[in-house]
Automatic annotation (TrEMBL):
GO molecular function, one term: oxidoreductase activity
Record-given protein name: Redoxin
PROSITE patterns associated with the record: THIOREDOXIN_2
Keywords, comma-separated and alphabetical: Signal
Domain Thioredoxin intervals: 24-166
Signal peptide: 1-23
SUPFAM superfamilies according to UniProt: Thioredoxin-like
Organism for this UniProt entry: Candidatus Methylumidiphilus alinenensis
InterPro entries attached to this UniProt entry: Redoxin (IPR013740), Thioredoxin-like_sf (IPR036249), Thioredoxin_domain (IPR013766), Thioredoxin_ResA/DsbE_sf (IPR050553)
Pfam families per the UniProt record, alphabetical: Redoxin
Coiled coil regions, renumbered to chain: none
Length: 172
C-alpha cells in the first residue's frame, strides 16, 4: 500500500463516521413531526400516527410552480390508492397562512394538507428543494426521496407508491 495515501484514507474514514445522517436518506425512519391543520380547526398531527400506511409526504409552498403542477398527481394518487393504504400528506411551508389558502383555492387538494408553521419538520427532513417528496413504507422507513417535480415523472411516482403498497404490512 502506498503510505502517502494512508492519511487521506484515515481522514475520509473519520469523516464518514462522524457525518450526521439526514432524515432525507432512504432507509432512515421518518421524523415524528408535529404539524397543524392548515384551516382554522386547530387540529394537530404527528407523522407517526400514520404508521401502517404508505405515506407520500410532499413539502410545498405557494410560490412554487412545480408544486402547483404536482397537485394533480397527488389528487389522483389519493383518489386511486387511498383505499389500498396510501396516505398523501402535503406539508405547506408558507410563512403567511393566507398565501397557502389562496394557493389551495386555485389548486384544491383532495388529500391531507398540513402546515409546518415553524418549519421544524422541513428541518428534520432536511428539505433542500420545492417540492420535496418522500415515500415512506408501512414501517415508517423512508424508501424514496425526490426533489422537484416534472410532469413526466408522475408514472414513476405512482409505480413506486404501488410497489410499497404491495409489500408486506407492518413489522412489530
Amino acid at each position: 500500500m502506498n503510505l502517502r495515501i494512508v492519511p487521506f484514507l484515515c481522514a475520509a474514514l473519520a469523516l464518514g463516521l462522524t457525518q450526521k445522517t439526514q432524515a432525507t436518506d432512504a432507509g432512515n425512519e421518518v421524523p415524528n413531526c408535529a404539524l397543524s391543520a392548515i384551516d382554522t380547526t386547530q387540529q394537530s398531527y404527528a407523522l407517526k400516527q400514520f404508521r401502517g400506511k404508505v405515506l407520500y409526504v410532499d413539502f410545498w409552498s405557494s410560490w412554487c410552480n412545480p408544486c402547483a403542477q404536482s397537485f394533480s398527481l397527488l389528487n389522483e394518487m389519493n383518489r386511486d390508492l387511498k383505499d389500498k393504504g396510501l396516505q398523501v400528506i402535503g406539508i405547506n411551508l408558507d410563512e403567511v397562512p393566507e398565501d397557502a389558502k389562496a394557493f389551495l383555492a386555485k389548486h384544491p387538494a383532495s388529500f391531507t394538507v398540513m402546515a409546518d408553521a415553524n418549519q421544524q419538520c422541513a428541518k428534520d427532513f432536511d428539505v433542500k428543494a420545492m417540492p420535496s417528496s418522500y415515500l415512506v413504507d408501512r414501517n415508517g422507513v423512508i424508501r424514496y426521496v425526490h426533489l422537484g417535480f416534472r410532469p413526466g415523472e408522475a408514472k414513476e411516482f405512482r409505480a413506486l407508491a404501488e410497489q410499497l403498497l404491495a409489500e408486506n404490512p407492518v413489522r412489530k
